[in-house]
Amino acid sequence: MSKYSVAKRYAAALFSVAKDQNVVEEVNQDLQEIAKVINENRDFLALLTNPKFSSERKKEILSDLFKEANPILLNTLKLLVDKKRIRDLAAIAEAFKTLTAEAQGTAEATVYSTRELTEEEKKGISASFAKLVGKETLNITNVIDPKVIGGVRVQIGNIIFDNTVASKLENLRRTLVG
Fold first, then answer.
1. Contact in structure between 59 and 86 (CB atoms under 8 Å)
2. Three-state SS for 109?
């Protein structure tokens, strides 16, 4: 079974429990922060995956460090330690974030541009492109990419809308060269 399908299953289960208790947004925020901490600190991940430490000791460490986190999430982290799936936490966090966005009628989008977009521009892009993918709004992450030259490239999931000068020049080059 692929790592992604495992992550989706854990995320779906966590989402279901969080939704039943009406704490989806709280769990999502905590999960994103914890995944960021674990991913950025390779030594911590190494400790959580080290077979020299018992599962009980690893769960104690998680309980001490993340005692302010939602109990549902803390129990999920402990389950991941027991099942030796803590390495999948980043993928689970991403899948949970997607489920949360879908439940709210939003989608995650990455917009590549030559400069930082203003809030007004982000709102305009969100309004225009959200309709194309059947969502109400987009949560936009702006990435500055000088290779764009001009225009924007919008990526929503695996859909890419490329209206950049660089892509137009490449298309022109292909047409002229043959």
1. no
2. strand
* CA count, 13 A, side-chain hemisphere, 72: 21
pTM over 0.85: no
For residue 69 the two structure tokens come to 């986190």
Query: Which of 92, 86, 83, 91 lies closest to 47 in space, CA to CA?
Result: 86
Report, in this order, helix, strand and coil percent for the chain, each rounded to 5. Answer: 65, 15, 20
Q: For residue range 8-23, what is the model confidence (pLDDT) as tens digits?
A: 999 999 999 999 999 9
Instruction: Specify the residue for token string 């709280």.
Output: 26
CATH class of 3-101: mainly alpha
Tens of pLDDT, residues 4-61: 788 999 999 999 999 999 999 999 999 999 999 988 898 999 999 999 999 999 999 9
Provide CATH 1.10.520.20 ranges for the chain.
3-101
Could you tell me the two tokens for 88? 């999948």
**Closest alpha carbon to 138 in 155, 113, 162:** 155
